[in-house]
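Anyone up for a design puzzle?
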């Protein structure tokens, strides 16, 4: 018995030693236990994406126009379960790449905002096939890889106006919030005012959604690990209980149950067919938008989380940032190949860093937990859309905090930032918001006599977007994009 215990301890110590040497625990002032706890914490705070991403990307049966991935011969629930598998695999690949290649405690998964842009704008509003949308994600990933490999990050960053970069997060937050509130029946269409307050005192979905939303806010405010996924889960359970006890009619608060499927062949590789017969300018705009948001969201998140962990150098930069950027690019490319929207680094990684996570071991734990979550894929199809979209409102509200980075006392910043933020939710398009900010930036700079703050790239982008808006809205394309 004693020999067996000694052998187990030696084996455990040996594995811990290998991990400590590989990830550099001593150099980063951490240990295995701290890294594991940090990884679990990060996973709990971002695990909601396994449920939310599929519910956004799958074509909603309640909306008459196609607004996401629709698979012939498969039900909505089966499509959701496929996309849950794809979400998990993409997140695991990206996060494990972060662990072993970049050795940073940052976790990755398909990003909120970009999945909504994919479904509601690219597929829904522009009418581009979901296969072509996946092709755009794939191409964006390849561009990201190429630019990261040649170290062109700083040149790309200089190409975009600073107020637009700072405003994108807030605009996306508003965009996510209105999508979530609509799914919860809290915000509904109105002929006179376009949108208005829904029947929150009579509609069971709205009533339960409001309950779930404020429950989740309360958990989030208390700093409860996994608050969003707990809020979604409890809201779902109350919905099932209400139907079980006969308080509402069957399937009022719950989706029709279908068998989950792990077969992702209908979506994996679909991007290849999407490369055929594309309209070049519209495709380029979609690729540009995916790249812009992914690039700056990831760069901003890396610096923000790096600040929490004390990773930044004296100049406020993250050393070797190209490595985590490459992990992001690889994840995006793989995600596009498998069938999901752009992968990005999650700000929720800060929760693990605050727990002491300092190395790729934290990311390794997150990646392994994503793989283990494959066992719970059937749960994703059982969660109603209104419950999963609670996450959009919570994250949307949190993202509004990005406005503090904008120099509102400078009108040449206020105009492009304000246009970026306003146009996104009002046109249901992240791309249009970014474009509005980019077009307005050189114009106000010129009018204010600050032409020296502009670059040829600013004017080139502005002219390109003006041309696009003219072609898009003049009827020349006649909806065929």
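Challenge accepted. My sequence:
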């Amino acid at each position: 018995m004693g020999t067996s215990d000694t052998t187990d301890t030696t084996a455990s110590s040996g594995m811990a030693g290998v991990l400590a040497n590989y990830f550099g625990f001593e150099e980063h002032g951490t240990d295995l236990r701290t890294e594991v706890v940090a990884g679990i914490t990060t996973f709990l705070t971002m695990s909601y994406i396994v449920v939310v991403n599929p519910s956004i990307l799958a074509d909603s049966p309640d909306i008459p126009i196609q607004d996401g991935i629709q698979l012939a011969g498969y039900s909505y629930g089966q499509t959701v379960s496929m996309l849950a598998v794809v979400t998990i695999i993409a997140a695991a690949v990206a996060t494990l790449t972060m662990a072993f290649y970049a050795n940073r405690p940052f976790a990755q998964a398909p990003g909120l905002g970009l999945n909504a842009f994919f479904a509601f704008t690219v597929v829904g509003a522009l009418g581009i096939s979901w296969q072509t949308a996946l092709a755009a994600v794939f191409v964006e990933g390849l561009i990201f890889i190429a630019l990261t490999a040649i170290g062109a990050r700083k040149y790309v960053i200089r190409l975009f106006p600073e107020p637009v970069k700072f405003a994108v997060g807030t605009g996306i937050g508003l965009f996510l919030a209105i999508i979530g509130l609509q799914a919860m029946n809290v915000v509904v269409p109105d002929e006179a005012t376009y949108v208005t307050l829904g029947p929150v005192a009579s509609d069971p979905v709205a009533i339960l959604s409001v309950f779930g939303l404020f429950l989740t806010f309360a958990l989030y405010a208390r700093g409860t690990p996994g608050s969003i996924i707990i809020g979604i889960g409890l809201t779902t359970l109350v919905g099932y209980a209400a139907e079980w006890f006969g308080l509402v009619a069957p399937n009022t608060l719950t989706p029709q149950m279908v068998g989950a499927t792990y077969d992702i062949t209908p979506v994996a590789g679909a991007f290849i067919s999407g490369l055929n017969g594309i309209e070049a300018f519209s495709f380029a705009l979609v690729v540009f938008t995916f790249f812009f948001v992914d690039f700056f969201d990831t760069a901003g998140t890396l610096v923000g989380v790096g600040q929490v962990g004390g990773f930044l150098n004296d100049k406020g930069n993250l050393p070797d940032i190209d490595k985590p950027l490459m992990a992001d690019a690889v994840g995006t490319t793989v995600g596009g190949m498998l069938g999901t929207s752009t992968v990005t680094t999650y700000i929720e990684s800060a929760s693990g860093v605050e727990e002491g996570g300092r190395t790729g071991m934290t990311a390794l734990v997150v990646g392994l937990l994503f793989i283990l979550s494959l066992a719970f894929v059937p749960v994703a199809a059982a969660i109603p859309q209104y419950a999963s979209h609670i996450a959009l409102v919570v994250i949307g509200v949190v993202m509004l905090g990005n406005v503090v980075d904008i120099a509102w006392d400078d009108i040449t910043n206020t105009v492009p930032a304000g246009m970026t933020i306003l146009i996104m939710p009002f046109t249901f398009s992240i791309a249009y918001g970014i474009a509005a900010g980019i077009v307005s930036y050189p114009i106000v700079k010129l009018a204010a006599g600050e032409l020296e703050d502009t670059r040829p790239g600013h004017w080139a982008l502005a002219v390109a977007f003006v041309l696009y808006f003219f072609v898009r809205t003049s009827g020349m394309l006649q909806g065929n994009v």
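A detail worth pointing out: The mean pLDDT is 89.
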